[in-house]
Each structure stands twice: as structure tokens, then as C-alpha cells.
Amino acid sequence: MTDSSRRPPPVPAAGVPAGTRRAGFAFAFAAYGLWGILPLYFLALAPTGPFEIVAWRVLLSLVFCALLLTVARTWRPLLALARDRRVLLTMGAAGALIYVNWQTYVYATATGQVVEASLGYFINPIVTVFLGVLVLRERLRPLQWIAVGISFAAVLVLTVAHGGLPWIALALAFSFGCYGLIKKRVGDRVDAVAGLTLETAWLTPVAIVQLVVVAATSGLTLGAAGPAHAVLLLCAGAVTAVPLLAFAAGARRLPLVSMGFIQYLAPVIQFIVGVAVLGEPMPAERWVGFALVWLAIALLLADLARAAGRGRAARRALSASDDRDAPEAPVGPI
């Protein structure tokens, strides 16, 4: 019989040590909380326009990632990834999508459309489910189909209320959904720092062209709007990379179902910022559209929780079966 003193320490039902879970929650809440208040940061960069902000964000993110790679001494694995043609092209496609996402988001913030931007991230998980069916031929459970149908109804209501398609929300949701789909192709081979490095490296020529165009037209604002503004703008790289790294750290420590619930923290904060802080209008029709979206999200989360519960029950049944087959195993918490 195995010595009971050598058994592993008790862990929660999810199979992850309690300390690891606590750290995971801290990282996840930090990531989504930072993404939630991002509109306030972009608004603080006025009078810098969206095209200049995104260009500096690309270039300074690349510089920040280069510093991280140097400190961690991980340049060699990155260069090995860069020599893989498939990975390199995949990260180029991911970079194009994240560029569309960043440009749309900063434009929405600068033009007083933070509430619509939050809508994009509310419906993003539903779009991801839809893309799974459309691209990966995945099969949906009944509640997921209902959630997708309600989300389509919500977009229809918001289209009528808005007098046109909520293109900002749809652009954000589909660009980030496709971004996630493409990143899935490289799986665990590319970590957060390496991924952001390759993506921003692809986007560097675009960023340089944007800065040249801005300089030739309205003029660059870096250094022209005071030292405090310059410091804020130079922090764009860290502001981009830090929540991404926190997200990666949280995702490694938490089950998918936990990340699925926490991800809504960012659009909730964005919605509050748009309505309560920036005073964006919320007519009755818009409330109806958002209510339908939130109903779809509730169904999606209920389905996610139920599926996770079934998975845990199956694992417990398998564990009990294994215990019966091995009677000499020590009895106690796993």
C-alpha cells in the first residue's frame, strides 16, 4: 500500500491546486479589468487621433515585447517560430485581424461609441460559437442554438433602433472571433509574448505608413501636447501587452468554464463607463437590444456550466470506477 504521507495535497474538484486557482483568478480579473477601463486611457490621449494611437500602439508593443524577450532570454525560440512558414503566415493573418480590432475599438472610443464597443465584446463569445459551426463544423447543443438565435434578434432590434447595422460592434466581435479561431491553429506552440511580437512585426510597416501620413496631414502629437501626454502615449506598448500577459497567465491556471464567466467583466465595465461616466444615450430600443444580448449570454453561460457539471460528474464516475479496480489505493481527497 502506498504511504499516505506521500499523497499529493488536497485540490479542488476541478483538479487545480487552490493556490494556483487563486493566482489564476487574480490574473484573469486583472486582465479583463484593465481591458474594461481601456476607453478611459484612450480618451486621456486626446488630441491624438485613432490612426496615430494605433500606429504607436503597434510599434511600442513591439518594443515592449523585445524587452521582455531580452529579459527572459527567449529570442532563440521566437526565431525558431519565425522560420516556420506556416506559423509565420498564421501570425500575419492574426495580426491583420487584431489590427482591424484595435483600429475599430480606438475609433469607437474617440467618437463616443463606447457602449456599442462593449456590445461587440458581449456578443463576441456568441460569434465564436457561430464561427465554430460555420468554419469548424461543430455541433451545437439546443441552448447554444437558442442563444445564437436570440443574438441575431438582438442585432436586428439594434439595427432598427440605430437606423443601420451596429457595424462597430459587429466588426469588433467578428474580428476578435476570427482572431481567436486563427490563433487556435498554432495552439500551444506560440505563447502570448511570441504571438504579440510576430503580429506587431507584421504590422510595423503599416504603422510606419500611418505615422508618415499623419505627420504629413494633421501632424504628430507625440511630444507636442506636453510631457504628461507624451508619457501616456509611450505607455501604449505596456498597456497593450500587460493585460494580454495577465490573460495568458490566468488561462493557464483556470478551467475554461471559469474564464468563460470572467470574460464578461470587460464589456460590463465598458458599458458602465459609456453610460455612467461618458453619458452616452441609451434609448428604450437600445435597452431592449442589450437585454436580448444579455439573455443570450445567460443561456450560453447556463449551458457552459451544465456541460462543465456533466464533465465533472463523468470524471468522478471514472475515478470511482478506478478506485474499485484498485482497492489498495489510499483513501482521501484527491
Order of helices and strands: HHHHHHHHHHHHHH
Number of helices: 14
Termini separation comes to 17 Å
Number of DSSP strand runs:
0
> Rg to the nearest angstrom?
23 Å
Shape: globular
**Overall average pLDDT:** 84
Proportion of residues in β-strands:
under 5%
Q: What percentage of residues falls in helices of 4 or more residues? A: over 70%
Class from secondary-structure proportions: mainly alpha
Biggest sheet architecture: none
Low-pLDDT stretches are: 1-14, 326-334
Written account of the structure:
- With 334 residues, the chain is mainly alpha-helical.
- It contains 14 helices and no strands.
- It has helices spanning 18-36, 38-44, 50-72, 75-82, 85-110, 114-134, 142-162, 167-183, 192-216, 227-234, 236-253, 256-262, 265-277, 284-325.
Short summary of the structure?
The protein is an all-alpha fold and 334 residues long.
Any key phrases for this structure?
disordered C terminus, single chain, mainly alpha, 14 helices, 334 residues, 76% helix, disordered N terminus
Layout of secondary structure:
Layout (H helix, E strand, L loop, with lengths): L17 H19 L1 H7 L5 H23 L2 H8 L2 H26 L3 H21 L7 H21 L4 H17 L8 H25 L10 H8 L1 H18 L2 H7 L2 H13 L6 H42 L9
